[in-house]
Structures are given as structure tokens and as C-alpha cells.
Write a structure and sequence with these properties.
single chain, Dodecin subunit-like, Alpha-Beta Plaits, 3 domains, about 30% strand, disordered N terminus
Length: about 375
């Protein structure tokens, strides 16, 4: 009996260790080899200087994993101040693997474990992750599904408050906003969203120049009429649903819901509280997805027209040879039109450029969006 219990405890311990996984995943950290230099009259200080320089070089390599040197130009002062000057804070651990001293100058090579997740968050804070995603433009559509005889002014004020809040939060995080402008356009978009047709709404938003559509569904439902300090006041529940979609693929980046207790018809604070919480959660979710796209490989769609099956096979084989491409999958092929899904570490523009540079390429790029590339065989 005791032996059985001991075996069970051992099995439980093993399962617990397996479930917990390693302390740091490949996404959270990365081992980088870098070399630094240091000099001076004091050997100890010179050696420390060389190690610190190597740490900075390791962090610089980590930054290069996320963004190109060209992308850093406009933000270099901020990167120097917030990232490079605090290099040690992004180093989880390191070990010296080689060192030498020549005429008072130390050269030290280290193997450093760089905290890539923290580095990505630091770059995000200064707008470089959004820049790497080529500054997608966002359109916000706020609509209302008010029920039980609420007044029109109540719906309008709830919508305006939510729209202003969302736009302020998005602008504060560095997003570029696109306005639907014409009243009819907004009505058409609202109609599609109310009809639960987000794919068509996303395509319409794309035509207006937006890469992301934020669908905000505000609901203030009449519950009761109360006497408050001698005044009759109507009370409404406060609910909001947020959904973020890529307009070129209709892929959902975020979906969430918040509710608050009923409040007076003129009291919008509960709705504002729910909107604030949900909006920050949405922005965090979108940026987290983009961090993964930048650090790992994003799924891009290639739409090819007027293509034969043999041409498609040739293109597929060529794509697999492009550096940064980890997977190519045929999603559909019918009537000379094909859709390929490509896992690529980089932007759609980067991949489009590499496709155009393929040796003996027989395809031309006819369009590039945030997540899709349009191609056709040359001469067609």
C-alpha cells in the first residue's frame, strides 16, 4: 500500500513538472552571442566595461530581431535612452565564453540570455512594434442596440462618449485613425454589423483605407423609472462589446464584453468605466498578437489570379526558399485563382519585395495590404 502511494506521489510530481514547463520559453527569451571591448588603466574596470559593451551588443541584436536599422532612425534617441542605456535590465543571465587582453584593451565574448518578451514590450512602448507592422490605420464604428423605449438622446450620448474614449486610447498608443467621414458610409457599416456580417463590413472599411476595423456595440437598456431626490429618473443598463478585425482577411484580433450596473439616463460613468477597461484589454491583445507576428512568423495571404497549376507549384517551391518563410500552404485553387497562406517573419511589404527579387521570377505583385499580397503571372 505504501509503495502504491509513493508511486502515485512520484507520478503526480512528474506530471506537475511537465505541466509547468520550462522556466522560460523560446518566445520569452533567446540566447545571443556578442563581443564587447573595454580599455583603461584599471584592468578590473576595463574588463567590466567589455562585459557591459557585450551586453549592449546582445540587446542590439535582440532589437534587430524585431525591427530593422532603418526603422530605428526616427526613434533612435528613445531607443538609446530606454533600451540600450538599460541593457543589463534585458539580460536574464550571461556567461563569458572567450576573453583576451591586448595592450590594455579587453575583448570579451559572452553568451547572454536576452529577455525578448520584455524587450518587445519596451519597443512597443516607444511605438516601434506598430511601426514594424507598417502603422496600420484603424477605423472605429460605434453602434447602439438600445431596447425597451430608450430616448434617442441617450443612445447618441452613449455612442459619442464611447467613440471619443476609444479614439483617445488608440491615439495614445500610437495608432493611426481613419474616419468613415460620410454619414451614409457609417450607416452602411453599422447596417452590416447589425446584420452580423462583419466580413463585408471589414471589406467596406478596407475600401475607406483602414487595415483594422473596431466594432463597438453599445447597449443601454431601459430597466426602470425611479425617484431620485424628488426627481423622476429613467435607469439604463450599461453594456459594451468590442471586436477588432483585420479588414483584408476578416481575421478577428480581439473580442470582448463588459457590463456595469444600471445608471441614470445622463450618468455615463459606468459605461465609460466598462469602455476604458475593455479598450485597454483590446489594445493589449492586438499588440501582443503583433509582437508574436514580429518575433515569430505572421500568417500572410497570397491571392494569385490567372495562374495555372504548374505555375502555382513553381511559385510555392520558390517561396519556400525565401529566408523568413517557414511554411507555405495552398488554401484554395479554382478556375485559375489561388490563395496561399505563407508563414513569414516580416511584413507583407517585405515579402512582396522578396517575391519581386526572385531569380527568374515569373510573377508580378499587383497589390499589397497589411496581411495580403496580390500576384499574377507576368504578361497576363
Amino acid at each position: 500500500m505504501r509503495q502504491t502511494i509513493a508511486c502515485c506521489l512520484l507520478l503526480f510530481a512528474c506530471l506537475t513538472l511537465l505541466a509547468s514547463g520550462p522556466a522560460h520559453s523560446a518566445e520569452a527569451s533567446k540566447e545571443i552571442v556578442a563581443t564587447g571591448l573595454g580599455g583603461g588603466k584599471d584592468p578590473g574596470k576595463a574588463r567590466d566595461e567589455a562585459i557591459n559593451d557585450a551586453m549592449r551588443k546582445a540587446v542590439e541584436q535582440g532589437v534587430g530581431t524585431f525591427v530593422s536599422s532603418e526603422s530605428l532612425v526616427d526613434k533612435m534617441v528613445l531607443v538609446e535612452d530606454r533600451i540600450y542605456s538599460a541593457s543589463q535590465g534585458f539580460i536574464e543571465s550571461y556567461k563569458v565564453i572567450k576573453e583576451s587582453k591586448d595592450d590594455g584593451v579587453y575583448e570579451i565574448t559572452i553568451s547572454a540570455v536576452v529577455k525578448m518578451a520584455d524587450l518587445a514590450k519596451g519597443l512597443e512602448a516607444i511605438g516601434l512594434i506598430i511601426g514594424k507592422k507598417e502603422n496600420p490605420r484603424v477605423m472605429v464604428i460605434v453602434r447602439s442596440r438600445e431596447t425597451s423605449g430608450s430616448f434617442i438622446p441617450v443612445a447618441m450620448e452613449g455612442n459619442r462618449s464611447t467613440e471619443n474614449q476609444l479614439e483617445k486610447i488608440l491615439l495614445g498608443k500610437g495608432f493611426r485613425l481613419v474616419d468613415a467621414k460620410q454619414t451614409q458610409r457609417k450607416k452602411d457599416l453599422e447596417g452590416l454589423l447589425l446584420a452580423d456580417d462583419p466580413s463585408r463590413a471589414a471589406l467596406m472599411a478596407k475600401d475607406f483605407g483602414a487595415e483594422i476595423l473596431i466594432d463597438a456595440d453599445v447597449r443601454r437598456t431601459f430597466t426602470e423609472q425611479r425617484q431620485v431626490m424628488g426627481r423622476s429618473m429613467r435607469f439604463f443598463t450599461n453594456e459594451i462589446r468590442l471586436k477588432a478585425l483585420e479588414t483584408d482577411t476578416a481575421k478577428i484580433l480581439y473580442s470582448g464584453y463588459e457590463t456595469r450596473p444600471a445608471s441614470g439616463e445622463e450618468a455615463l460613468q459606468p459605461l465609460e468605466s466598462a469602455t476604458n477597461k475593455l479598450a485597454k484589454e483590446m489594445v493589449g491583445g492586438i499588440l501582443d498578437q503583433w509582437r508574436k507576428d514580429v518575433y515569430q512568423a505572421a500568417a500572410l495571404t497570397l491571392n494569385i489570379t490567372k495562374v495555372s497549376f504548374s505555375q502555382l507549384n513553381t511559385l510555392t517551391a520558390a517561396l519556400k526558399e525565401i529566408r523568413g518563410v517557414s511554411k507555405v500552404q495552398t488554401r484554395s485553387f479554382q478556375g485559375g485563382t489561388a490563395a496561399l497562406e505563407v508563414a513569414y517573419q516580416g511584413s507583407a511589404t517585405d515579402l512582396a519585395g522578396k517575391i519581386g527579387e526572385l531569380e527568374g521570377s515569373k510573377f508580378e505583385v499587383t497589390g499589397v495590404q497589411a496581411n495580403t499580397i496580390d500576384l499574377k503571372p507576368l504578361g497576363k
